[in-house]
Design a protein that fits this description.
The protein is mainly α. 82% of the residues lie in helices and 0% in strands. α7 packs parallel to α15, α7 runs antiparallel to α16 and α17 packs across α20. The longest helix is centred in the middle third of the chain and has 35 residues. The chain is globular. The termini are far apart.
Amino acid sequence: MTKRLLWYPAIIGVFAFLIWFILNKGQSLPMHVAATPAPHVTPPAVVKASWLQYLENLKHPLGLLLLQIMFIMLVARFFGWLANKVKQPAVVGEIIAGVLLGPSLLGWVAPSFSAFIFPADSLKTLQFLSQIGLAFFMFIVGMELDIQKIRQKAHDAVMISHASIIIPFFLGVSLAYFLYTRFAPVNVSFISFALFMGIAMSITAFPVLARIVQERKLTGTPLGVMAITCAAADDVTAWCILAVVVAIVKAGGLVSALLTIVLAVIFVAVMLFIVRPRLEKAIRKHTENNQMKRAVSLAFFVLLLSAWLAEVIGIHALFGAFLAGVIMPSNTIKQLLTDKLEDVSVMMLLPIFFVFTGLRTQIGLLSQGDLWGVCGMIMFVAVAGKFGGSAITARLMGQNWHSAASIGALMNTRGLMELVVLNIGYDLGILSPEIFAMLVLMALATTFMTGPLLDWIGYSERKKAAITRISY
C-alpha cells in the first residue's frame, strides 16, 4: 500500500519535470514576428490590462446574458412574492417587475445602470430567448386544454366565450376609428390597426384564469368548470382569429391574405386529422415499450415542426406551438412534457419575456393629460366589453347573477396572453409606442382587478343572502 502511494508523487513529479523541461527548451525557439513590430508594453500597463479584461468580460455577450437572466429572475421572483402577499397571481408581480425594469422606472432613475445591464445591442438575444420560452409555454397551454370538457358544455361555453370575443372586438374596432389618425404608425392601414385593437380587447388569459380558479378552490364547482371551459373555448377562438389577423396584416393584399388563410386552414386540418392520430399511435407504442426518451423527442420534434410551419405560412410560430400542444395525446406523455418544460419556461424564460415587454413599454410617453384620458377610455372599453359581454351572456344562458358576474370577472383577466398579442402587434409595426404602453397598462389593470372583483361579488352575494334570511 505504501509503495503504491509513492507512485503518485513519482508520476506527477516526472511529468511535471518533463513539462517544465519542454517549456524551458521552447523559450529558445525563434518567434514569428509581424512585419510591423508590436509596441513595447510596460509591466504596469499589463497589470492594468488584466484588470480591464475582467471588466470587459462583463460586456461579453454570453457573460452579459447570464448576468441579465440572474438579475431578471431575482427581481421577478421578488415581485411575484409581493403579488402573492396581496392575494394576486405571481404573474401580476412578474409583469410589474418587467415594466419597472424598463425605461418607465429603472431607465429613468438609473439610466447608466439600465444601459449597462440592458444595452440596446443585447435586446435581440433577449427577444429570441423570450420567444423560445413563449413557444414552450403556448405548447403547455395547448396541452392543458381539455377538449372533452369543452364538448360536454359546448353549447353554453361556446356561446359565452364567443360573445365575450365579438362584443369587445366590436368595441375595440369602434375605438380604433377614433384613435387611428392620431396614434397609428406610419404606413399602417386602418384595417390592420382596427383588427389588432379588436383582438387586444378580446383576449382572455386562460393560464392565469385557471390558476385563480385553482387558488380559490373553485376547480370542481360548476362555476369553476364553466369559467375554465369558457376560457378554453375563448383561447382557441381568439388564437384562430389572431392567426387570421396576422395573415391579413403580413399578406398586405386581399388575394395574398386569402391564400395565407387557406394554407392555415389546411395546416390546422392536417395537424388535427392526420398528424394527431399517427402521433398518438407512435407515442403509445414508445410508452408501452418504456422508450420515454423517444416519445419525448418525437413530441419536441412535432412542437418545433408545427411552430416552424406556422411561421412559414405567416400565422406566427406561437400559434403552431399552441396547436402542437392541442394535438398531444391524452396519456402520461402530457404530464411528462409539462414537468420537463414548465419549470424552465415559467421560472426562467417567461420573466425574460416580461422584462423584454417592459423595456418596450415607455409610460413616460404618456406625459400629457389627454393621453391618460385615452388610456382610461381604453381600459373602460376593455372592461365593459369583456366583463359586461361575458356576464350578460352568461345570465342569458341561465346562470344566476352571482355566477354570471363571477364568469365576467374571470373572463376579464388578460395577463400574459394579452402581452403576447401586444408584442406581436408591436413587432409587426401596427401598434405605436404610445398605444403599446396604454394596452400594457390595460393588461395589468384588468388582471389585477380580477381578485378584488371576485371578492366584491362574493361579499355582495353573502350580504344579499344575510338580508334575505333576516327578512324571513
